[in-house]
# Entry
Amino acid sequence: MENNDCPAEGLLKLLSGKWKPQIFLLACSEPVRFNSLLRQLKGANKQSIATALRELEENDLLIKIVVKEKPLHIEYNLSEKGKSLIPIFQSLENI
Amino acid sequence: MENNDCPAEGLLKLLSGKWKPQIFLLACSEPVRFNSLLRQLKGANKQSIATALRELEENDLLIKIVVKEKPLHIEYNLSEKGKSLIPIFQSLENI
DNA sequence: TCAATTAGTCAAAAATATCTGACTACCATT
DNA sequence: AATGGTAGTCAGATATTTTTGACTAATTGA
# Structure
């Protein structure tokens, strides 16, 4: 079922979910967190956010980090691969 | 239901369908046609191709042209907006 | 100790997207 | 007149995505 004819298709699919573009955008400015996203993204639900974060992490756009501080929590940081997408997204905005 | 927070989201959604990336890729090298796509894209069906072409046209990535030649037919050409996406797609390929 | 916050999982329902098969309509060839 | 190619449309079925609500489990603050 794999189709590698279109080289950009993988990236496109990866960012095509209902919430992923917004999560990615937020992750561009600062590390994102599960419950925080749930509050920020109006209309989103746990399941969808969990799935989006997992898939973004599996595809190395985000890096999951357990922060051992005050209120022990988990952060998702933009990876180097993720950062390399930023200028591409910016050029998309002006079309 | 509209969400304009993420400026690249529209483009992303527009190219997120099952067949659109492949159709767009083909349209980059030459004008595409309905029945021709139906033969080239293994597993695709009329309905999906018709929908993809319509949406790509509605969003000004493709331009529908009735060619009044030998076997009267319809061509979908890449628009200027569509052409401006090519370098962006190329940069996506190398990530 | 109780309540809230953290970050989830799970199964089932609802909403979307895609596919199938039948049908239309025009034109050209046999 | 029948066949095949052009480019679709339509309704209904199937498949995929997303949502809902209940639940878990560890940590924190009062």
